[in-house]
Amino acid sequence: AFYRIRSLLADLSQAFSVPLSLTIEKENFETSLTTLMGSSLKAKKKTDELIQFAAKTPLEMTDIQPATNTLLSFGVEAEKLIPTMQMLGDLSRGNSANFKGLALIFGQAKATGRIMGQDLNQLANRGVPILQELAKHYGKTVAEIRKMGKEGKLTFDVMEDSLVRMTSSGGQFDGMMDKMSKTTGGQLSTIR
Predict the structure, then answer these.
(1) What is the pLDDT of residues 112-137, one digit of tens each?
(2) Which of 28 and 109 is assigned the larger pLDDT?
(3) What is the C-alpha separation between 125 and 116, in angstroms, rounded?
(4) Are 119 and 101 a contacting pair, CB within 8 Å?
(5) Banded model confidence at residue 167, pLDDT cuts 50, 70, 90
(6) Confidence (pLDDT) at 42
(7) How many CB atoms lie within 10 A of CB 20?
(8) Which of 58, 127, 148, 179 is paired with 187 by a 20 to 30 Å CA distance?
């Protein structure tokens, strides 16, 4: 009887620890957003929106939270947060590490107003064909685009427009997260 009671207590402890852990994570995230957004009401609303966003994608809140903090810290407006994350998530094809890396590259470029050669390389390393897209946009070669990047002649707005084109209707990465969320891995992520 002692072992059955002990087993039952262990099961109950585990059953309560997961929801409690999730509640603590959500509360910590809301507190962080309150600091970044300056309002607890706005932070609560944005947290709820981000939880709904994560539920529809192969990304989890452990991916969304750091990307949110990064993007807000670099000046992405709260209203543009989810569309920006959707774009970055599509570009990353729902890959957690690529998503977080793209959020950092995007935020840094937004903060400086420019995209430099190293940013172009980092995007390419994460599977984003930004060089080809910019070459097509400017009517130049990839080598010329690289040179423009090294010289600081590529603006953030041009980069953002290129990323939006790649993820919009008809673009190479259009609806990628939606497609990835239908895979076995994506469905498991949604359950988690």
Answers:
(1) 999 999 999 999 999 999 999 999 98
(2) 109
(3) 14
(4) no
(5) very high
(6) 87
(7) 10
(8) 127
Dihedral pair phi/psi, residue 181, rounded to 5°: -70, -15
Could you tell me the two tokens for 144? 């010329």
Q: How many CB atoms lie within 10 A of CB 80?
A: 12
Spatial neighbors of 55 by CB under 8 A, at least 6 apart, are: 190
Q: In DSSP terms, which residues pair with 39 in a beta bridge?
A: none
Q: Which helix (H) or strand (E) holds 105?
A: helix 96-112
- What's the pLDDT score for residue 9? 55
Nearest-CA neighbor of 133 among 89, 103, 165?
165
Would you say 94 and 59 are in contact if contact means Cβ atoms under 8 Å apart?
A: yes
Q: What tokens were used for 137?
A: 């946009």
**Does the structure show a pLDDT above 50 at 150?**
yes
Tell me the residue type at 149.
G
Quote helix, strand, coil % in the chain, to nearest 5: 80, 0, 20
Question: Full-prediction pTM beyond 0.70?
Answer: yes
How far is the C-alpha of 172 from the C-alpha of 155, rounded, in Å?
Answer: 22
User: Token pair of 161, please?
Assistant: 């427009």
Angle ∠(116,119,125) on CA atoms, nearest 5: 145
